[in-house]
Amino acid sequence: MAQNLIVVLPELVLALLSVVVLLIDIFSESRSRLRQTAGLAMMAVVLTLAVCIALWGKNLSGYNGIVRLDSMGLLLSMVCLVSAGATILLASDYLRQIGSEKTEFFLLILLSTVGMMVMVKAGELLTLFIGLETLSIPLYVLAGFRRQEPRSQEAALKYFLMGAFASGFLLYGIALTYAATGTTIFSELRHSTSTEAIAGSPILLAGLGLMLVGFAFKLALVPFHMWAPDVYEGSPTPVTAFMSTGVKVAAFGALVRLLGGGLASLQEGWGTALWMLAALSILFGNILALKQNNLKRLLAYSSIAHAGYILVGVVAYHSLPTAFGPWAVSYYLAAYVVMNLGAFGVLILVQSRPGGAEKLEDLRGLSQSHPLVALCMTFFLLSLAGMPPFWGFVAKFYVFGAAIQAGRYYLAIIGVLGSLISIFYYLRIIVEMYMSEPTEPEPKLSSSLAVRVTVGAAALLTLLGGLFSSGLADAARDAIRMLITP
Amino acid sequence: MEFQNWWPLALVVLFPAIGAVSNGLLGLVNQRRGKPNKEMVVSAIALGASFAAFLVATWGVLALVNAPADEAGYRVLSYEPYTWIVSELIKVPIKLVLDPLSAVMVLVVTGVGFLIHVYSVGYMHGEEGYYRYFAYLNLFMFSMLILVLGGNFLLLFVGWEGVGLCSYLLIGYYFTKDFAATAGKKAFVVNRVGDFGFLIGILFVATIFGTLDFDTVLKSVGEHQAALLTPLLGSWGPTVITVLTLSLFVGAMGKSAQIPLYVWLPDAMAGPTPVSALIHAATMVTAGVYMVVRCSPLFLLSPTSMAVVAWIGVLTSLMAALIAMTQTDIKKVLAYSTVSQLGYMFVACGVGAFGAAIFHLMTHAFFKACLFLGSGCVIHAMHHAYHHTGDGESDPQDMRNMGGLWARLPWTFLAFLLATMAIAGLPPLSGFFSKDEILWKAFMPGNEYGSFAIWLIGWVVAGMTAFYMFRLLAMTFLGTTRVKRETFHQVHELPWTMLAPVLVLAVLSVAGGWINIPQVLGSESTERLHHFLEPQFERYRLEMGASDHGVAELESAGGPVGLGEVSGDRSPRGAGHELLATVPAGGHGELEVKQELSLIWFSVAIGVMGMVLAGWLYLKAPEVLELIRSRLGRFYDVVVNKFYVDEFYEATFVDGTKKLGENLAKFDLARIDGLVNGVAKATVWTSKKSVRGDLNFIDSAVNGVGESIMRAGLVLRRIQMGSAQGYIVVMAAGLFALIVVFVLL
Predict the structure, then answer these.
(1) A53 at the B interface (CB within 8 A)?
(2) What is the ipTM of this complex?
């Protein structure tokens, strides 16, 4: 009993704390309610982080194996929490600027994070599904948070429709898998799919295919990606930041668990499907980003491409004992979350200008009016492009290295090609910042300390993560070792 | 003790980094405070940083010479502060290595780099963004030093990308001018193609050798010969090593501007002239040559790759020299000349004369930097003269507006003359020694990688080089001036801070070759550079013990070399490599000596011929020149227009890519109406209806009735149910495809 509770302790803590935050918020009469609630939500995130750190190193499973507490789960939970924390910091000012001082924003972020944490720790299909829904429903609301804005409503509706589709696919896939194997628990799935009769069953294959489609929807992999640019563009920017980071971490974490832990013996089947999705996402995501002028759309396509790179790591999950693939995935996710959040943070800063929008031209001459902000953005973009010595470079190095180790050379080559293409559109932004004159004299950015600190910290981490990658890498590798040793 | 841990090596790299960061920060702070930057402070920081790097580098090279050697005479200093990347596949430390090869490079980079820093102080005086310029320049030095000192492929790559970025930033330095921005972009695009090849090559190395460390990789080349010499596709395919080395060479082609990726370098002249001297002549563009030399044991295993390198090099040098003969922009001539000389260096690599390649790289750094800085003086002086006379029209870089400038710019003229003689290969200037060695190695009987054709083209190009350089000299400095009278008198010699570096470089262009006088010409202290570099190449000489057909081939090919005797003290098994290691063994055969001497006469003769011809045509007999031009007709036009290569690329690759991107974008915006329409318009209509109902419900629940209907209409228009439907259609197609994949595979 106690062990069961320990296993879900971080989720419990966060869920309870979010209720507390809600209660305080309701009865609060403070003038700066927005600030207060943001602060409380931030505290909840930090507390949960502390719980995760306290539990570090434990390897337990609870409720008959449907939830697992291991290092990968904790690591990715923490990454999700970092994403949530950064979103809260980025949003507090943003909400005031858009004139929507609704405090439930933070609550929804917290609840969505609970769903993410459940997802990355799920040891069973239905738990995974519940995590996914807990994650998604608050996000549908968040996407439409700027209710006066038609684009935001459009985003919410589209996200909801597509999310419903994805859930449908996933659930149907789960049902078929259960029908074929008689279980939904990963460890038992692994056991039963090792027999020839079940592994070859068409029902199981169909189930696997449908589940993959569900995941591909959530991760916006080509060709299941089309909703992403619209939704990312329409949603409030902090929500976009959260969607493009936290959701990806959760979905990839669950995917690694499901495929590596549960369906490892079907590797041949999912390997082929996934590498095609990865290659398509990398190529199309990058090529399509070339033409974008809206920064949020551009980052949306870029995130599609990044999902492709991460998927390369998943595909490379070829040989279980070395565990290089899933490790590279976790590592890449951490790096990606930091640099992408940073880039969105800069976007929020720029949007805080009076009349500031999200077009490429809005960054024109930023290096002259705000050299430090421009420098941070340059770090993020170069890192996203995979330029050494930034963190993104090391992360790509690991992922492509994993692909090579798994014998998937073509994936590494496609990945390299994709990152070379990506340099063009990232560099377009840098050129706009450094090599053009500002359109209007000295547009002032909002001087919110929270946003600036977040962006600055992310920039620092992007650089240091690249320069001193091996220390971080060691921690991540230890984490994955534990996942592998049953 | 083979690898000495020598920490000051880090300082070589750190000084320019500190310079860049402090200048950048200073600039930012001053900008925020609204204060102008003091040029004195900025240049003091930048010059101090680069000079300190030079001093430490010199110290390092001295320490290297005095370091204990292993039994093969190989010395090395290294510094490894920490492990950068650890994975199960590979471990990559941050490791700086100073061996004979990188020692030469480091001295060139920091030495020439410092001189160009000094020159820049005067040249960039009063320019906007002065601090930015010096921050970039120091950043470039930092990256370039990482490139040459990096002890593994990954660090080399870090430097490689770094110098590319700085080059890009500095080409586009005058970003308010359109052509500068375009040129920067072009350099960037073309280099991406090269980088793709380079990265693939690195991935190959990592896979085959399991490490990226140069020393380990090159040492184990012998062990992996069997794997490396396996054909990739059946017995007819290229071997792994050929693919690997050619991928690396694609990277070198991009960085060092070889056919077909040379197009960016002439355009790169849009940057400030000292940048052209430092980055686009003396250092960065030679990175490709350095990389090939660094990987020479790999290249030597594949005769195909060697031939490709040599032929690309020689054809590039021919084509660029042809174009250079017709250009009228002073910097463009020098740019094509650089491309041509880089071609020479690759010829040296391709015929196995790696030492000669490095030698020519060094002398080229001296005389080409001198020429660029000299042309910078001319441009600067002309610009100021035009400025004074209020002439905003004339192009200060067009040689047709010059002539007779020697009287106004005597010191510049002197330096220019010396450097011109050096590049034209007149003895005893530096270019003579290095170029001759390349030509000799290409011709050398018994060199399996050389050939008469390569020598012949190289020899003709030597004449063309002399021609276009003396044409440049004649059009700029000699003859009667074509400058307007009042402008001519406004042309003034430049301050000493700018002249001094030019003159130092002129002296180096004269004397730089003396460290490597060929044996046939000297009695004592010959070929010092080669003796210095020799252990480097010796260290990785192939172990021929393994029984492998490729090895046998190599052995037979590299058997007893030449007509004279091969060095007695070295076993014949390594003779092939030894020859290629550029060290002519102990004794020259008599016939060989004669051949080498006569070749020297040959090349001196064609150099003088080119020189005299240029002088005669451009100073004495312009009417003959016109006659030749009209006779050549179409061909001349084609050459003047640079063989229309830029236009060709524009029409094919650039437009093609644009179209592809546009079409894909169109598709992705889900304008796949045909599909949707085909399915059922009625469905769309119904769903619109139903969504309207939903939205109305939501809106009225939230906002009340009033304006919400209007808003819902607005939303609806935005929602474009057609596109949402389209998305789902595409996704369904994707699902279908996935199922097909499952079933079929």
Answers:
(1) no
(2) 0.83
